[in-house]
Amino acid sequence: xxxxxxxxxxxxxxxxxxxxxxxxxxxxxxxxxxxxxxxxxxxxxxxxxxxxxxxxxxxxxxxxxxxxxxxxxxxxxxxxxxxxxxxxxxxxxxxxxxxxxxxxxxxxxxxxxxxxxxxxxxxxxxxxxxxxxxxxxxxxxxxxxxxxxxxxxxxxxxxxxxxxxxxxxxxxxxxxxxxxxxxxxxxxxxxxxxxxxxxxxxxxxxxxxxxxxxxxxxxxxxxxxxxxxxxxxxxxxxxxxxxxxxxxxxxxxxxxxxxxxxxxxxxxxxxxxxxxxxxxxxxxxxxxxxxxxxxxxxxxxxxxxxxxxxxxxxxxxxxxxxxxxxxxxxxxxxxxxxxxxxxxxxxxxxxxxxxxxxxxxxxxxxxxxxxxxxxxxxxxxxxxxxxxxxxxxxxxxxxxxxxxxxxxxxxxxxxxxxxxxxxxxxxxxxxx
Length: 432
What we know:
Elements (H helix, E strand, L loop, with lengths): L1 E5 L2 E6 L15 E13 L4 E21 L8 E27 L2 E19 L1 H7 L22 E4 L2 E4 L4 H8 L5 H4 L6 H6 L26 E5 L2 E5 L5 E3 L7 E2 L5 E5 L4 E11 L2 E11 L2 E3 L1 H6 L23 E2 L24 E3 L2 E12 L2 H5 L5 E15 L28 E9 L1
Parallel strand pairs: 9-12
Antiparallel strand pairs: 1-2, 3-4, 4-5, 5-6, 6-14, 7-13, 8-11, 8-17, 9-10, 14-15, 15-19, 16-18, 19-20, 20-21
């Protein structure tokens, strides 16, 4: 701070302060890696195998805007060495060149298998805390979890077992000896009899599947996030039935479990080329095996919380007592209550296996006989028809199972426009 004055008169004041912290201990990333490869060739190179196993370790990994403790007076550094990351994987290739040949017929093929994953082996605690999101206690909120010595892409949420068939008030009446006629006709005399038979109520059960009662002899109602003397919500008939893992009568962060991984167990492709005389047929496929996607698009069109278009699946929602139960996953409609009901929490209801096999490319070509085209003063004449993305075999319910994966977060489908549009091409190739 500087002060300028003439005699006793005050003229002005200038203050200066740093705009950021000095990058002490800052250095470049260091990478060490190894790659081990094997090649095997048979039948004069007509059939070959190649296996590559690799590992890459990055130490002093750089991150921009890295979070730091607020006691420093700043929230982040422009750049920081935050930790170490290891990339492991393998790739196996099979190639066949004229693998089968008889007369005018021949066959070429290739097959590729691969697996790859990233693992954080060391991470600054403040940065790690910033990467891991907290349970937001609301619908459609995905958790991000980065764990030391574990691959990225783990999906965490609740297990959903269906919907509650009956209202809580019905469970209260049964506990007082007032069994509904429809249940009495089935021979039930107590609330526990109903529970033992697989009939579902929004009531708390212990580890032995027995009803938990309060001091008044009333069953405890299932709640959502009971804090500071009151819950954020209470479950009722037709609501989603989440697993109370610790049997404390409420659904909260203690009931979150591992639901799957966005990292495929296997990725790759294959293709073949058939030649017969002047004809040639070429194909190219790709695939992913055993990887999970969180279908956020499906969650939105099954939420029934607004006037937006909904999936036809909501036609089979819970409507009256007795509907629903185990493995019946469409809850009741509660329009305008997206923040007060908890029927679309992140759960295994919306986690889907997105394994697929896609035909990326197909081309059929006919090459005219050179003797014939010489008469037309041509060196080459080819007629081709090709197609891209003809079909995709998958059990995934979304538009496109090939959702991007990688990075710190899980793969989620937000109803993006598919990148694989179907296309057809016809071409004529003339060479003079």
